[in-house]
Amino acid sequence: MIEIQAFKNSLVQCFGKGDVPKKVLVALSGGVDSVCMTYLLSQYRDKFNPEMKLHAVTIDHNYRKESAEEARKVGELVSKWKVDHYVVPLTYEKPLDQITNFELVARTKRYDVFDNLAKQLNIHNIFVAHNYNDQLETCMQRIRAQSTVFGLTGLKQRALIPIPNKLPFDYVKPIEVVRPLLSFSKKEIIDTCVQNNIQWFEDKTNQDIFLTDRNLYRVALNEYIPEVLKKNPDSDFKSISYEKIGETIQQSKALVSYVQARTKTLRESMLEKDQLRFDPKNGIVSLKMDKSAFLENGPLALGRFLFEILHPYSASQNYFWSFTKVLNKVVPRLNRIVEEGTFSPQRFTILHLVFDVRVFDDNVVIRISRQPVSGPAWNKVIQNHKSSSGMSDWILYDNRYWLRFRSSYDATFTIVPYYPPKHFPMLKKQYLGGIPGMAATSTPLIMFKNGDLSLPTYNLAPSSFYVEWHLKDNAIIELE
After folding, report:
1. Residue 372 — φ and ψ, nearest 5°?
2. Where is the tRNA(Ile)-lysidine/2-thiocytidine synthase N-terminal domain (predicted)?
3. Predicted pLDDT at 207
4. Suppose 154 and one of 96, 135, 220, 359 were both cysteines; which one would form an S-S bond, judging by CB atoms 3.0 to 4.6 Å apart?
5. pTM of the predicted protein model
């Protein structure tokens, strides 16, 4: 059973030096985990934090006939604990049995609901009831997917919500997912509900091994593997028992902690020495490293360093899942160039980024910029918009630049990648100076129907048009 003091300690650990928030949103499925977490939060509030306001949302996936009635009963249950409850039904474009990636689709839809409701309620923390068993299942799933050591650390107690940002961080505080039950086992959670006579609802689809991969791993770890090991303790399956996977997680965390410390030291040292420069206006990162430091840091630390600093500058839609590409493609390519010691400039492209590398006697100079947009990619990057006297909503252009605008008259325009050979002469006709050359390639250029042009990152715009811009926030190192 989970004692309230142990739960309080877990909450404090989740938020580190910060205070536990006064207002939270609970992802409440009605299963034993989320019901237990909601109960414990209400007990924590009553005993330690009486000003805390609890909201809970239940997602009705419409996968089972009884799901709507269960959602209603869940609301009745938590209302006794002074929890405001919301039910949100989901709809799908196809019948559920025709959705091949149902797990991913459902997860994305759930987090969209959480994000929207949290913002409506002015809440910044969504509590999710993943437990220690879930942690092990996640690790097993990632082992199967050949994850890097960073993935093998499992779920985090606190992380940014896993959906694209809808606004710059300067204008809205990012939503965080909080997991206070990660250190508690499924048995402890069930015992807590049983001993406190708390009802919960079993979702039979959680045992459907054909519905999601996680269900398959859950059944394997909880039922199949223990049964095999009971009959044959020396079976090969002992390497993927709960105990062994738990050891893998702890070993991975120790290694990742070491790598992150080295990465942070490298980043701070290079910034202090002016060896790392960020140029948001042109979308360029420049770095200069001693040859010895470049080779001595090792592929894991170097790969993580590059992965972290380059996130805002890459147009890749799948960047969050691309550390393996950086580790297996970027780092070996850079190492090979440095070891060969060729003095001629070297260039390669990965993750919509161009790496220009120069090797000198004692150091390596790398310039990283947006891959020029051409061919079929051009049409995917172009955006059409309208502006009026009121400030527009923020839009994310090319998955790199946040833009919003207003004009003194109703204006229609197109945003395209700046291509100096074509657009520089056009800008020169409109502006007296301050027009960039090739360095600004692929930054956003606004083209009006009347022929006017605007280059937001250089503050070039017609007098009747106002535009704000921000480079995409670095969500990867936001919680460091």
Report:
1. -55, 140
2. 23-218
3. 57
4. 135
5. 0.86
